[in-house]
Write a sequence for this structure.
C-alpha cells in the first residue's frame, strides 16, 4: 500500500460550502450550469510505482469514480474509490511493450472553502494506492501491449472484429526471443460496467473494449468504417509511433504517415462515457477524422460522437451518430482545442474536456490558453448515422473542416476554465510563470463526478474531479516489471496532479439513477 500525502493543513474548514460569488455560469440548451469554486488539489509523485514494480504514471488519461463507495463523513470530509487508466506506458521516446492496466486508489478529500490566495490550502485530496489490474487478450493469459500497431494486417480471434496487433521480436524490451503478436491498446477512456467489469476506448483501432473484473477481454466494438484508419486502400491501425526498441523511436515508419481517411494518428476514441444506468455507451473522437478536416490544424473541429445500446453488453447495437464542434483555442481561430474526455450528464447533455497542447509543466510554454471542461448538448443535432456519412471515404466536412450545411452540430457552451489563477492560487498551484512543481501539467484528460451531499445529489451540487496524464515523465522510472530503469530525456519530474471543482448542475439533474 502506498500513501501519497503532503498533509491536511490545520486551517481546513470541514464543510463543503461554495464561495459566495460563483466563478462562472453558462446557459446550455436552456439550462443553467454554475462553476462555484475550485475545491481541491492533490498529487501522486512521479516516482511512485505499482505492485508490479512499474512507474505509476499516465493514469490521468481516464478515471472512473465508484459512486457506490463515495461517503460523506460527519466532519464534512469524504472518502471514495477511484480507478485510473494509463495509456500506453512511457512513450516519449518511442512506444514500449507496456501491458495496459487499471489502477485502483482510495481517496480522502477534505474541502477547504476558506482557502484564499493569501492563505492557500495546500493539498486536500489524498490518494492511497490499492491495486492494479493488468489487461489480457480473450484467452485470459496473453498480455495486451502498448506498442504501436503494425502498419498492415490484424489479429483474428473468433467472435471478435479484426483486432489491432503488433509483431514483437523477443520480449519487446530489447531482449532476444521468438517472434509473437499481441493485441495493442492505447487506452484513453474508462467506465465501470454494472457487472463489475470495465469499458475502455482506445486510439489505435480506434475500438471500444469490454473487460471482466480480472482484466480479461470479453468483447470489442469496431466503429463505422469512416473512423477506421486506411492506408493504400487497406485498414492500417498504426499511429506512426515507432517503438523505443531497438532504435529509440526511430524507424518502423508507415507510408503515408498520415492516413488519408479515418481517425488521425493519436487522435482516436479519446472520450468515453457510460450512462448512469449502464445501458448506453458514448464515444467521441479526439478531433475530426482525417477526411473531415483532421489533417488541417484549424480544420479538425468537427468530430464524431457515437452512441451504442449496451443493454445486452455482449450484443452492443450502434444506435446514433452526431457531430460535436470543438472550440478554437483563441479568437484567431488558428488552432482547435482537441477533446480529451466526455461525461454524460443527463439526456442529451455532456461534459467535455477540451484543451490546448504544448503548454504546462515540462513544456516550452508555461501558459495554457485553453483548458476547459465545457458542456455540449445534442437535442437539436442531426443524427448522421447511415451509409451517407459512415463509409470509409465518406465525409461530414470539407478537407479544410467546413461542415456540410445539411448537418446541424451539437450546441457547445464554455464552462469550467482550469487556468484561472485566482482559483488555482488558493491551492498553491498556478498556470503560467515559473517552471516548477506547482505549475499545472499540460495534459488534463479525465472527468469524474460525485455528489456534494454524499448521497444522490438532490441539491444539484457536485464535485468534478480531473487528473492529468503525466506521460510517465520522471527521472526515476521503471518499466518491464521494474526490470528496466529509465530517466526521461526531458529532464523533468511530472507528478500526476488532480483538481476538484465544485459545481451546480441544472435543477433536478440526474447523472445517475436513484438507488432503489
Amino acid at each position: 500500500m502506498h500513501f501519497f500525502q503532503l498533509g491536511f493543513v490545520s486551517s481546513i474548514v470541514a464543510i463543503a460550502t461554495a464561495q459566495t460569488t460563483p466563478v462562472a455560469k453558462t446557459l446550455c440548451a436552456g439550462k443553467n450550469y454554475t462553476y462555484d469554486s475550485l475545491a481541491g488539489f492533490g498529487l501522486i509523485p512521479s516516482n511512485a510505482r505499482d505492485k508490479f514494480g512499474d512507474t505509476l504514471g499516465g493514469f490521468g488519461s481516464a478515471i472512473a469514480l465508484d459512486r457506490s463507495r463515495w461517503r460523506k463523513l460527519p466532519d464534512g470530509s469524504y472518502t471514495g474509490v477511484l480507478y485510473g487508466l494509463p495509456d500506453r506506458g512511457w512513450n516519449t521516446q518511442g512506444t514500449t511493450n507496456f501491458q495496459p492496466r487499471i489502477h485502483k486508489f482510495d481517496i480522502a478529500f477534505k474541502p477547504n472553502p476558506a482557502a484564499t490566495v493569501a492563505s492557500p490550502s495546500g493539498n486536500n485530496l489524498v490518494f492511497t494506492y490499492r491495486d492494479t489490474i493488468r489487461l489480457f487478450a480473450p484467452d485470459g493469459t496473453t498480455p495486451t501491449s502498448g506498442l504501436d500497431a503494425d502498419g498492415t494486417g490484424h489479429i483474428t480471434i473468433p467472435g471478435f472484429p479484426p483486432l489491432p496487433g503488433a509483431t514483437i521480436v523477443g520480449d519487446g524490451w530489447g531482449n532476444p526471443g521468438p517472434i509473437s503478436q499481441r493485441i495493442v491498446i492505447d487506452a484513453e477512456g474508462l467506465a465501470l460496467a454494472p457487472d463489475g467489469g470495465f469499458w475502455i476506448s482506445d486510439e489505435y483501432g480506434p475500438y471500444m473494449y469490454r473487460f471482466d473484473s480480472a482484466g480479461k477481454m470479453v468483447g470489442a466494438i469496431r466503429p463505422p468504417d469512416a473512423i477506421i484508419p486506411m492506408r493504400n486502400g487497406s485498414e492500417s491501425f498504426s499511429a506512426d509511433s515507432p517503438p523505443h526498441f531497438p532504435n529509440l523511436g526511430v524507424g518502423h515508419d508507415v507510408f503515408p504517415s498520415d492516413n488519408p481517411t479515418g481517425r488521425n494518428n493519436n487522435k482516436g476514441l479519446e472520450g468515453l462515457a457510460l450512462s448512469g444506468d449502464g445501458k448506453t455507451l458514448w464515444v467521441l473522437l479526439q478531433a475530426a477524422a482525417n477526411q473531415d478536416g483532421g489533417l488541417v490544424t484549424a480544420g479538425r473541429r468537427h468530430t464524431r460522437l457515437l452512441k451504442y445500446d449496451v443493454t445486452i453488453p455482449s450484443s452492443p447495437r450502434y444506435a446514433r451518430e452526431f457531430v460535436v464542434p470543438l472550440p478554437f483555442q483563441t479568437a484567431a481561430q488558428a488552432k482547435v482545442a482537441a477533446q480529451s474526455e466526455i461525461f454524460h450528464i443527463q439526456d442529451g447533455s455532456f461534459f467535455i474536456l477540451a484543451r490546448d497542447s504544448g503548454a504546462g509543466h515540462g513544456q516550452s510554454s508555461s501558459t495554457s490558453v485553453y483548458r476547459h471542461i465545457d458542456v455540449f448538448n445534442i437535442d437539436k443535432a442531426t443524427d448522421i448515422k447511415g451509409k451517407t456519412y459512415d463509409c470509409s471515404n465518406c465525409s461530414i466536412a470539407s478537407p479544410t473542416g467546413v461542415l456540410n450545411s445539411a448537418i446541424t452540430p451539437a450546441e457547445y457552451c464554455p464552462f469550467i476554465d482550469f487556468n484561472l489563477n485566482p482559483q488555482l492560487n488558493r491551492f498553491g498551484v498556478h498556470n503560467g510563470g515559473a517552471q516548477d512543481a506547482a505549475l499545472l501539467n499540460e495534459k488534463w484528460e479525465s472527468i469524474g463526478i460525485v455528489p456534494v451531499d454524499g448521497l444522490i445529489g438532490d441539491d444539484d451540487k457536485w464535485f468534478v474531479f480531473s487528473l492529468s496524464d503525466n506521460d510517465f515523465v520522471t527521472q526515476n522510472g521503471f518499466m518491464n516489471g521494474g526490470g528496466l530503469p529509465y530517466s526521461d530525456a526531458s529532464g523533468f519530474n511530472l507528478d500526476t496532479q488532480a483538481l476538484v471543482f465544485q459545481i451546480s448542475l441544472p435543477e433536478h439533474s440526474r447523472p445517475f439513477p436513484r438507488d432503489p
